[in-house]
């Protein structure tokens, strides 16, 4: 089958691997490094909860890194539009590697504190946002436009492997070996990221370049003001992630509501990835869908409904339904853990389908000379939304109950997204065959 031919199978389209060995190497390196990164994300959350016993302190890990991540993502996008994108990604990956190595060293010497965890997670997230933005700006230079949806679906496989295996493995490693070995394994896995990036060709931006600075920022802002389709998809994703991201609640849910402790935390997080993985695995026909704006709306509505369903399951746990006599680390509520995993798997699948459409829209509709800056904003939205979500969930759960943030958030997502898209006919009519930003 040619690169331009139609993919007729429901199974994932693997043509990007055949079309570009450079894309294949970058995908493999990113997948392995991302798996290690998930080990560290979950281990930091669990360690913070061990040190403080506070759900709010766990949620503040994400919140503390929000502003540095926003600045790094935007500035990293400007760097990607001014210099060799391969060199920019390699430099940022080196910073990410260094911060993880320091975490491992602190854990081995027993000198880690809550403030060290906050500081190093900030450095890690800021550098990683530059890597992600630059890498996504590189993809359209390695593949033809018709294969971009397939490349995004393969990204869903990456996320599925990362988040499905990573948190579950992190929970087991922390429980059986401690934090030091968990961070050390991430250090080892991150080496593969350098292989994927190092073997890329030099990739300077096409067209007129603007040096990083205020004028570059203004240039990107002017483009975004004209790009109503890109702008609205950013807004929709922020809504979904702000009101529908219960990840920061998982340690407390595993400790006091559903039982099972760190292993339940890992299983719940892995359920999201299992849904993303399954939806990517059967995404073969997604690349043929032309009404991508409509696809984004419907996927996010399903996501909101699934998050609301999680809130109902947690509410049942609070009422003691299906619970053993004592719910703790050794006596989990297996029935409600299963139902929670089903709701989270549906949410993960819906979010992944939305992500395929959103990522393809940015890569196909935005010119190469400005793609780095728009990818920087895209990464800020994708990574910043969950941090706002951590603040929303952690604060509201502290004031009310663990089940209330997802239940309310799911309803808010459905109402806001349906309303905004209804008054945006241009977004609903977006045609992938004629990508207009």
Features:
17 helices, 77% helix, 437 residues, mainly alpha, Growth Hormone, Chain: A, globular
Question: Could you give a quick summary of the protein structure above?
Answer:
This protein has 437 residues and is mainly α. Helices cover 77% and strands 0% of the residues. It has 17 helices and no strands.
List the helices and strands and how they pair.
Layout: H1 15-19, H2 21-52, H3 55-64, H4 66-80, H5 85-109, H6 114-142, H7 148-176, H8 179-198, H9 214-226, H10 228-243, H11 250-257, H12 261-281, H13 292-318, H14 334-365, H15 368-399, H16 404-422, H17 425-428
Helix pairs in contact: 2-3, 2-6, 2-7, 2-8, 3-6, 3-15, 4-6, 4-15, 5-6, 5-8, 6-15, 7-12, 7-14, 10-13, 10-15, 10-16, 11-12, 12-14, 13-14, 13-16
Question: Can you offer a commentary on this structure?
Answer:
- With 437 residues, this protein is mostly helical.
- It has one domain (15-198, 214-428): Up-down Bundle (Growth Hormone, Chain: A), CATH 1.20.1250.
- The chain is built from 17 helices and no strands.
- It has helices spanning 15-19, 21-52, 55-64, 66-80, 85-109, 114-142, 148-176, 179-198, 214-226, 228-243, 250-257, 261-281, 292-318, 334-365, 368-399, 404-422, 425-428.
- It is globular, with a radius of gyration of 21 Å.
- The mean pLDDT is 86.
